[in-house]
Amino acid sequence: MPDHRHEDRCCICGFIPPYLVESLADSEDARVRKVAFATLEATTTARATRLVNPSQLLGRSVAPGQGRSRVVYDMEGRSMPLPGTLRRTEYQSAVLQDEVDEAFENAGRTYEFYRSVMGLDSLDGGGFPIVSSVNFGFQVGNAFWDGERIVYGAGDGNLFLPFTRSLAVAAHEMSHGVLSFSSDLDYEGETGALNESFCDVMGISVEQYTNGTSVAEARWSLGAELLGPALADVEAIRTFEARPAFKDHPNLSTDPQPKHMRDYVFTDKDRGGVHINSGIPNHAFYLVAQALGGNVWDRSARIWFEAFTNVLNRRASFQQAALATASVARQKFGEEAGLAVSNAWRAVGVQPDVRP
Amino acid sequence: MRVELTQSGGWANLTLRCLVDSSSLPADVAAELDDAVQALLSAGMGQVGRVRDAAVLEFKFEKGGKVTRARFDETAAPKELDRVLRILRPLLKPIPFQAD
Ligand SMILES: [Zn+2]
């Protein structure tokens, strides 16, 4: 089983010594590198770990309130200091700058989903201001949640296009915020994969809700709109379906996401493969959605939201997620729904009946 | 100097890599890279513990028979990282995911 090597409740912390390993010539031994890195990681994490209540972050950008409050800043290709130059606030119309307006609109769509479907007023239920910073860094092909805002790179135009293009990415990053205010799931190993999966699930659910597409009509993959000309032959970055998102690609080879526990990837990369092993709970959600049918926001996404934000604890395992989602499904929507959820987890190799 | 950069993680979690021999670069770019690498290696790093989906940048520098490795979260040491990435990022190419 993946371990949970450190607490991860810290916020933006003070500066610490360089995070580097100097070795003598020819230290090619992977084990040596691994030990050296692990030592430094443990040291830096220990120094960086300071308990900070997420609500303390509220005052940093915009005052909290009730209702929707969106703010978009522009980093203009810089990587510091965040948040950047103010470009658009809640009551302003479009500024005709794609990245700014996309971030603004996608924040609004995600807010609307959480308010209407989940009854949640913004990320914390109390009108947390949704702050986005676009055009972060030099050719950054990524988006991340930095603990208080969504930060988007604009891509290099060759491999990746601006990450503001994807509603699912925006909703994914905001969902990291939702989790941080609720179960605060860890971000390492199996729990981290649940954290990632929840955000993918909410990301694709917001997309389907916004587009009004049913489970049967929906595209069950993520990231196609982010791929630039050099990756135009890649269909998507990941998919909820059993098949890989890409296969035998000349550069990328085959999508490494597993869809069953027998293929769980044990790795030191990516915090224990949080973006890899999320494929397993993602596929379980897909199977639930297929079984329950209709629109994903009617039942499937609501079951996942309730279980992940109100039932799971911050060190939850896949099995606990299976138990929680099946239990919520039964309570909210009856035996048939509970059975559909249990069967989906069983199909990905997780037993929902055994209390861990 | 030879520099290898591997980027992994991040929302997309695709692995990208480049390997650059500074002798193949124009003299001014090679000098800037050398200087930027020294600055990066001596930089303090701002650890941002609640970041989700940050990419990881792993460097391997070889100079004068000495190998130095460093690993940074993309949100750490932003100023120093930025100088190096302005040279290396356009050279990154996708490669298959490797678990180890
Ligand atoms: Zn994520």
From TrEMBL, chain A:
GO cellular component, one term: extracellular region
GO BP annotations, alphabetical order: proteolysis
Family of the protein in this entry: Belongs to the peptidase M4 family.
Domain Peptidase M4 C-terminal per the UniProt entry, residue ranges: 183-350
GO molecular function per UniProt: metal ion binding; metalloendopeptidase activity
EC assignment: 3.4.24.-
Stretches assigned to coiled coil: none
A Pfam family: Peptidase_M4
KW Metal-binding (keyword) present: yes
Listed InterPro entries: Metalloprotease_M4, Peptidase_M4, Peptidase_M4/M1_CTD_sf, Peptidase_M4_C_domain, Peptidase_M4_domain
Positions annotated as active site in the UniProt record: E173, H275 (proton donor)
The protein's name: Neutral metalloproteinase
Role: Extracellular zinc metalloprotease.
Cofactor needs: Zn(2+)
Main subcellular location: secreted
Keyword Signal: no
Positions of the Peptidase M4 domain: 91-179
Matching PANTHER family: NEUTRAL METALLOPROTEINASE, PTHR43579
Keywords annotated in UniProt: Hydrolase, Metal-binding, Metalloprotease, Protease, Secreted, Zinc
Localization, UniProt: Secreted
Group of enzyme by EC: hydrolase
Domain of life: Bacteria
